[in-house]
Amino acid sequence: MASCCSTGPACDFALKASLIFVVLVCVVSTGCSTKPLPVYGQVPDFNLVSQTGAPFDRHSLEGKIWVADFIFTNCTSSCPRMSTQMSHVQPLLSEFPDVRLVSFSVDPKRDTPEALASYAKRFHAEPGRWYFLTGDQKTLDALDRRSFMLGNVDGSLEHSTRFVLVDRHGKIRGYYGAAQDDPTPALIVDIRRLERERS
Q1: What is this structure's pTM?
Q2: Domains in the chain and their CATH numbers?
């Protein structure tokens, strides 16, 4: 017996609808995989300062899942795009009270807490959810180059446009490109997967 949907517009619509349904199920469940996310490295202890002027170290993120990126406030190209994408992630975290967003400055000489606070306001950063960090250039360089393996904080202001996902134990679990594709869907899927690792 021939299928009732073999060719034609009706069949195309049904196939597209089925595909959309599968994608949605993947996004709202476990990301279509039960395999644990890989571990790429460990974030070491660090001591920096947040946009409020308060000290901020890795222990401030203990037990939290967090998303990191590297930006600077005088940037007019990639940084506004990255921060806009991060601001799109922020409202999707309402169901994840323990997830944090962390933006490290690659221009600590100019990115004072006051400058970071102004930048945070520009992108509607929620206090206590999204932190902007500055401090000693050597500390930031070690984090960027040796821990996250994204580049150097050496005054050149060249930096990666990738986002990094870190688990509750400070282990790096994912990298997400921001230069072309919107990383938001993949980030949310993998945050859900890390949430399910709670044990």
Answers
A1: 0.80
A2: 41-195 (3.40.30.10)
